Amino acid sequence: MVRLVDIARQAGVSVMTVSRVLRDAPDISAATKLRVRTIAQQMGYVPDVMAQGLRTRASRLLGVLLPNVTDPAASRLLLALEERTHELGFDLLLAQSLHQADREELCLRRFLARRVEGLFIAPVYRLTPFAPVYADLRRRGTRVVVLGPRPPFCEDFVGVEGDDVAGSSFATRHLLELGHRRIACLAGPPQSPVAQAQLEGYRRALREQNLEPDDRLVFKAGVTFEDGARAASQMLAENAGATAVQACSDAVATGAAAALLAHGLRIPTDISLVGYGNLPGTEHHRVPLTTVSQPKYRLGTAAIEVMLRLLRTEPAETRRLPAELVVRSSTGPPQRQIQLWTQGNA
Amino acid sequence: MVRLVDIARQAGVSVMTVSRVLRDAPDISAATKLRVRTIAQQMGYVPDVMAQGLRTRASRLLGVLLPNVTDPAASRLLLALEERTHELGFDLLLAQSLHQADREELCLRRFLARRVEGLFIAPVYRLTPFAPVYADLRRRGTRVVVLGPRPPFCEDFVGVEGDDVAGSSFATRHLLELGHRRIACLAGPPQSPVAQAQLEGYRRALREQNLEPDDRLVFKAGVTFEDGARAASQMLAENAGATAVQACSDAVATGAAAALLAHGLRIPTDISLVGYGNLPGTEHHRVPLTTVSQPKYRLGTAAIEVMLRLLRTEPAETRRLPAELVVRSSTGPPQRQIQLWTQGNA
DNA sequence: ATGAAAGCGCTAACAG
DNA sequence: CTGTTAGCGCTTTCAT
User: What is residue A22's three-state secondary structure?
Assistant: First the structure.
């Protein structure tokens, strides 16, 4: 391992001179600069960032904690985060909580021990209103940007998030505009902040049209394909009379589509379907899915921007980014008969 | 920031004692152990891993360099890597090359400056047989596990990879067994090692059945949906008389499917189609895709196992993991007439 | 324009 | 069982 001293000896100068040259510090003659640089190059010198950091008290390290890098939304965010982070001269530590609060805590403590200068965290949802690690982060004044909705225990941190109530209401409004009046909602887990926002958006859009949300049209669906299939089957079994279905995720929507088609319904002729998330590939599904897209990459760049302000100790605010409706072919106007029927019923 | 000295003062012992206690070193009385621990806890002590590392010359840092974390295969691998890495007590540095050789080089140099103890690299393919960074890695004796096929400039490193020639030949054999004789191949970029392996597997399976590979059945397809659509259209335009198509990726296969269906062909009734990669969601596509699956998660755990051997300076060998055919409904026996026609032609 | 001394927070090596 | 000394590789500070 080549150190500064080695170069210094070789070049016949002091360690300080070498240090200065290699950091492009001022007050060095062009001659020594060149000589030292050449020798350093020849000897294959690589600075020791840890030693530098110990002295300068700067780690140039950022950490990102995600539930699971496999989630397409998370990975797009990570793409952006990594890209910008490196441009800014930071290295990026990655950890996954795997949706386990204790693993999250462990990972965060390790990040702290690495003296990270900032942290991007997509928090594991806890039922408790407090989480000791977050208290520690606060106490230590660690810069934190929360990715996604902020549960109670970290409400005071800044963050970046998609606007899920607006996103969800886009979906509902789209169906409304097509003429649907009975729109079923396959809702996510009630504890999930995203699911709550989606339900809120759905109801809000309904009320805008003076339609009173009907709880018999809201079905618990979870998050998976199977959850979606189950929920759709149940909806059919209950004879809810919906002409359109809005799901809390594309996976759920896909499962619902499968169940609906299996029951002999045509999409969108007999029933319309909207997903959520714009999962890659849904445009090639059996029925290309109309869905809501959150700007995943933009969320990443926004997170970096916020972090940058934090690092400069400038005031930073939580950013809420707008969602976008992606219309494909799983939605269309309701069938005339059913439409008449619902109108007669309304 | 609380340091060992602070605790030492508070507890009325030497720094060394505190250090020993906190590292669970032997030869410390239970009493002091307890006392020091309590105080450390109270003061909110967090060890400085950088300082520890500087002294012990161990960074407990592993680095992973991927082209793009957004690729589902890469992200599954990363999932496994992160999981195991943390269990082993290492932190994980993440970087993306974005398929750019110079960015790859930069990232690797930064990893070296961090004194990583090991590196997982999915190399950017270069046309040149040498790459200076890799020479440096060699010279410095950095532990490296190459992810995926190893281009010439890093052939001497150990790695883990999927068996793409076997995987590809599984696909071909499957079509052969269904009775297909004229199987088109939508091939990937000729420089890509994976694409080469796939072509090799395709040809090998054909020859096993004493069928001479026909170059007029091989079409350049690239890697995207659009590439696939283009290639399939070209195949149709050239009247190649294929009863089945085997694509170099699921994206290409999906594009091909779209083109084929647009031309009025039914899949698999009129023509069979096999993809490659088992992209998440392909089971819900317009035509659920028969495809070849590489054990992405297993590749990650295998990479860790190899790294572990490297870290222990035990001999380590490159691991090649078997692929698996996933039969869904894009493949079936060829139509009788066409079959007769091809037989008459063969 | 260059160098000497000191120390970042920690631990290995040795002493008692 | 506990403490002292030295030093990891680097940079800050102050001197020349």
Answer: helix
For residue A10, say whether its CB is under 7 Å from any atom of strand D.
no
**Domain ranges (residues) in chain B:** 4-47, 58-163+296-323, 164-293
Using DSSP's 3-state secondary structure scheme, residue A285 falls into strand
- Number of A/B CB contacts below 8 angstroms equals 136
Interchain contact, B93 vs A95, CB within 8 Å:
no
CATH architecture type of domain B4-47: Orthogonal Bundle (1.10)
Test A92 with B91 for CB contact under 8 angstroms: no
Kindly report the nearest CA distance between residue A289 and chain B, in angstroms.
11
Cβ-based burial of B101 (10 A; exposed 0-12, middle 13-18, buried ≥19): middle
> How far off is chain A from B259, nearest CA to CA, in Å?
12
Q: Which residues of A271-300 are buried (b: 16+ CB within 10 A; e: fewer)?
A: bbbbbbbbbbbbbbbbbbbbbbbbbbebbb
Residues 6+ apart with CB under 8 A from A16: none
Residue-wise pLDDT tens digits, A258-306: 999 999 999 999 999 999 999 999 999 999 999 999 999 999 999 999 9
Report the length, in residues, of chain B.
346
Give chain B's count of helices (H) and strands (E): 13, 12
How far is it, in rounded angstroms, from Cα A271 to Cα A283? 18
- CB-CB: which of A72, A106, A286 is closest to B284? A286
**Pick from A44, A75, A257: CB nearest B75:** A75
Q: Residue A194, Cβ neighbours under 10 Å: how many?
A: 24
Under 8 Å CB-to-CB from A189, ≥6 apart: which residues?
A195, A222, A223
Which fold, A58-163+296-323? Answer: Rossmann fold (3.40.50)
A89: how many CB neighbours lie within 10 A of its CB? 8
Which of B132, B69, B64 lies closest to B307, judged by CA?
B64
Transcribe A69-135 into DSSP letters. Answer: TTSHHHHHHHHHHHHHHHHTT-EEEEEE-TT-HHHHHHHHHHHHHTT-SEEEE-PPP-SSS--HHHH
What is the DSSP secondary structure assignment for residue A58, as one 8-state letter? -
Residue A337: the pLDDT is 55
Cα pseudo-dihedral A161, A162, A163, A167, rounded to 10: -160
Q: What is the 3-state secondary structure (H, E, C) of A131-154?
A: CHHHHHHHHHCCCEEEECCCCHHH
Strand B244-247 relative to strand B272-274: parallel, antiparallel, unpaired?
parallel
Q: How many CA atoms are closer than 13 Å to the CA of A34, on its beta-carbon side?
A: 3
- Same CATH topology for B58-163+296-323 and B164-293: the answer is yes
The residue that minimises its CA distance to C1' of D11 is A55
CA→C1' distance for B34 and C6 (Å):
34
Could you tell me the pTM of the whole model? Answer: 0.94
Is the CB of B7 less than 7 A from some atom of nucleic acid strand D? no
- Could you tell me the CA-to-CA distances from A12 to A27, A38, A45, A137, A185 in Å, in that order? 18, 13, 16, 47, 76
Nucleotides of chain D touched by protein CB (<7 A) = 1-5, 7-13
Residue B155 has pLDDT above 70, yes or no: yes
**Contacts (Cβ under 8 Å, ≥6 apart) of A103:** A96, A97
Smallest Cα distance from B287 to chain A, Å: 7
Write out pLDDT tens, residues B45-55: 999 999 999 99
CATH architecture of the domain covering B164-293: 3-Layer(aba) Sandwich (3.40)
Nearest Cβ partner of B279 from A82, A110, A281? A281
| Cross-chain Cβ contact A46/B109 below 8 Å | yes
